[in-house]
Structures are given as structure tokens and as C-alpha cells.
Amino acid sequence: MYFLGFDLGSSSVKACLIHADSGSVIASAFYPEREMTIASPKPGFAEQQPEMWWENACLASKAVMQKAAISADEIGAIGISYQMHGLVVIDKDMNVLRPSIIWCDSRAVEVGNSAMDALGEEFVLPHLLNSPGNFTASKLGWVKQNEPDIFSKVYKFMLPGDYLAMRMTGEIVTTPSGLSEGIFWDFVNQRPADFLFNYFGFDPEILPEILPTFAEQGRVTPEAALSLGLREGIPVTYRAGDQPNNAFSLNVLEPGEVAATAGTSGVVYGVSDQIKFDAQSRVNTFLHVNPISDSPRYGVLLCVNGTGSLNGWLRNALFQGNISYPEMNRLASQAPVGSDGLFCFPFGNGAERMLENQDPGSTFKGIQFSRHGLSHYTRASQEGIVFALYYGMEIMETVGVSLKNIRAGEANMFLSPVFRETFANVSGATVELYNTDGAQGAARAAGFGLGYYKNRSEAFTGLTALQTIEPQTGLTEKTKEAYFNWKQLLETNL
Ligand SMILES: Nc1ncnc2c1ncn2[C@@H]1O[C@H](COP(=O)(O)OP(=O)(O)O)[C@@H](O)[C@H]1O
Ligand SMILES: O=C(CO)[C@@H](O)[C@H](O)COP(=O)(O)O
């Protein structure tokens, strides 16, 4: 038997087919080759067309099936991971009513702040663990206030992964973890937050059916099977936001375990069995996904929006697309630690939660024409992203999350030696890089959702640490000094 995982990222849709018993990857593919478009029709807006996600999912699925050369009858289940906090709205015929307002769109910040003021922090925080901020509920509130004609046609709202699953199965379903990432979940009453629906004036009927994360959530329809190159009737048995899913992929399930990723966004994610939250919502707490524990697990997450998005922007804007990421990494390694005093602030991809939803834009500081060249720009960008992540990690530590040992997939910006070494040197943490990614994790999770795997060792057979990066004596001092200067500049300029 095989399991098929999809990861709907902001840059591409990845698909991965694994063998159920050995856990080995049979084939993987992603579409498109260059990052998907994020449209910004107005400053602070970030939108993607759900149809584009579906088309790329179909291409990735067909490519995997072609590479694997197995019969689709042998696929036991499908799992889905997806970019979080986005909003998709559909009418009663399942037509999408407007482009998706995605996670890094900043338009709803004021809507969320007004909700927080009206409902009162003392009430909101214990129930939602976060401000409604810029999350899905506030985005839906924005549509209601600004696009009443569209809002009046909304039959259901959903998260990006719920949409992908709907296209596969025809079922409109979500999960408690998904509702928590949308800030629709009341942690006190362990159900959708009625008071928030009342505040925004949302009819509870627009909520999709709620099913567990690991369970059958629908079966591939004949029409979808044709588009995906699969067979009808394969069950979808798992869906989760890409950050809890990244943690799952790395077998980060229990308290004290920590995962990281550096895709379009960069995230550090710590698991806890205690409710921990930041009163300023600079780091966020959502329901984690854990198939082996009867009691809830929580994921405390810091997000830097401008991670791979900055790296991709540099590639396109500075190098006009004529360079590969490995070449950029080589260039970065030619500049010294601290980039000879060139500092980059990577905040050019929407409201940064860690900066209390300010959107200062990205800046390079300290440019000296006779000293700095392309290698400095490339290194300063990678260092700036790591410093921003570490700035958030310091906040996580104040919330009680310990960050000594961090697991990540050997993927995205963790492929860059400068990036991963700077990460270990500034944080003092040991970083373990594994042979996995979000699509592979979603495939393994589908096996849990089907009931095929019963425990961690069955589900994670073949998951291997490829390398361990320890802080380097001699470089930690210099890296920390560069971070200290970066942080001072950030705080004086905010
Ligand atoms: N070899 C590499 N070195 C450094 N960064 C890379 C490399 N390959 C890809 N990336 C970065 O990873 C980003 C894509 O990561 P990915 O995990 O696919 O994102 P998402 O899940 O958001 O779609 C790219 O924008 C790019 O900046
Ligand atoms: O907002 C967050 C996490 O809270 C982002 O991590 C999104 O989930 C998008 O992820 P990528 O496209 O960067 O994987």
C-alpha cells in the first residue's frame, strides 16, 4: 500500500507518494517550478486564486503518478497540508466568490483590533489564546464590512486546505485545529467561538462540518480522480495547517519538542501540553495535531513572513532571475559573519505578528559603496531572516517554550549552509535536519488517519536525521554581536 501527501504552500503545491511499510519516498513533485504568484491589488493585500492551487495540485499529482509507475488502486489514503490562516468563500454551488485572502494579507488588522477592543482582552485571551488579529475570522469580518454583496452570497467559509479537500471529495469539512488557526475556536468551551460569530454577525450556518484531523473526511470523486490522475474512492484521512503538519512530519508531537521551517515564511513551533500564550499575540498558540495523545497538545508558533519571500524577491529583483538558489548560497558564504556591517530587516511581506502586526517594509541598513557587493546583500538577507526568527524565539522563551533542540526538514532555506549555521550560532540551539518535507509528512499522517499506523515508530519508519548543526565555537560570539547590533537598529527604528 502507498500513501499520497499534498502540501499546498504559498510558493508551490508539492505531492509525495510513500510506501506504507518502509516509509520510503517513491516519488515526489511540485508545481509550479518558480514561486506561484501572490497578487497585491492594493498595498498590504495578498491574494491567490484557489483555482491555481487546484491546477498545480493536479499537475503535481499526475507527475508523481507518472514517476512512481504504480497503480492508483494501491493508494490507501490521501493527506493534505496547507498554508494557514487564509480565507476562501464559496456559494451554495461550491463556486469561489473572490480570490483567497491569504495568510500574509494585512487588510484585516484593524478589523481584528476592533474586535479585541470591543470584546475585551481579559475575556478574549483565555478563550482564543490570541487576538483575532489578522487571522481568518478577521478577514471574513473584512469581507462582510467591505464587500457586502459578496458576503451575502457566502454559503461556507473555509481554509485553503479545506478548499483543496473539497475539490477532491466534494465535501465541505474543516477541523478543530483548522478553526483554531482561523481564530474561530473557543479553547475554554472546546467548540467554535459563538461569541466571535455573534460579534461579527456571522451566521453559524456558514461554518463547515467539523471532523477530527485524523479521520476519513471524504473520498475522491470520479471527476477529481480524472483531474488528479488517481482513482475514485480514495479516502482523504488527514488535513492540517502547514506548521502543525511540519512538526508532525518531523515527529514533533509531544511537549518540549520543537520544529522549524524556512519556506515562504519562517516558523519556529514548540509543542506543549499546557496552555501558554503571549498576551500581545506576537507569538501564537493553536491546537496541535497529535494522533497518539488523548489530551490536547498545543503548538506555540512564531512566524516571520519575509523569509523565502525575501530570498525569492532578491533572486528576481537583484539578480533578475538569472541565478539559482544554490548559487546564491555560495555567494552568501563569500561574505564574512555580520556581512561587514550591512544589515537587512526582512519585513516586506505583510503585517508581522511578532512586531504586533506592524508592517515596516524591508530595509537594508549601513550600505558602504566601497565595501559591499552582491555577496554581502545575499548574506545580509539570510542573516537578517535568521535574526528576525531569533527575535521571535526570544519572545517564545518568555512564554515558557524552551528551544535547545530544533528539528527541520532538509529543505527550503535550511538548504543554505550560511542560513543554518547562523541559526545555530545565534540561538545556541542544536539543529537536526531530516529527510522529510510537508508533503511527505502529510502522506505519513494519512496512514494514521486511515488507522494503518498505530504508533510513532510505525508512522515514522525511515525518518532519518541527515545532519546535525551545532553552534560553532569562534563564530557564535561574532554572530551574537551582529544580532545585538541588528536588534538595536530594529528597536530604534520601529
Ligand atoms: N537551495 C536553496 N537554498 C536556499 N533557499 C532555498 C533553496 N531552495 C528553495 N529555497 C527557498 O525556499 C522557498 C520555498 O520554500 P517552500 O518550502 O517550497 O515554500 P512554501 O511551503 O511556502 O511553498 C523559496 O522561496 C526559496 O527562497
Ligand atoms: O502564517 C503562517 C504560520 O502561522 C505561515 O507559515 C503560513 O502557513 C504559510 O506558510 P508557507 O507557505 O510559508 O509554508
Automatic annotation (TrEMBL):
It holds the Pfam family FGGY_C. This is Xylulokinase. Belongs to the FGGY kinase family. It comes from Dyadobacter arcticus. Its EC number is 2.7.1.17. Residues 2-247 form the Carbohydrate kinase FGGY N-terminal domain. It is an enzyme of class 2 (transferase). Residues 259-447 form the Carbohydrate kinase FGGY C-terminal domain. GO terms for molecular function: D-xylulokinase activity. It comes from the Bacteria. InterPro entries: ATPase_NBD, Carb_kinase_FGGY, FGGY_C, FGGY_Carb_Kinase, FGGY_N. Keywords: Kinase, Transferase.
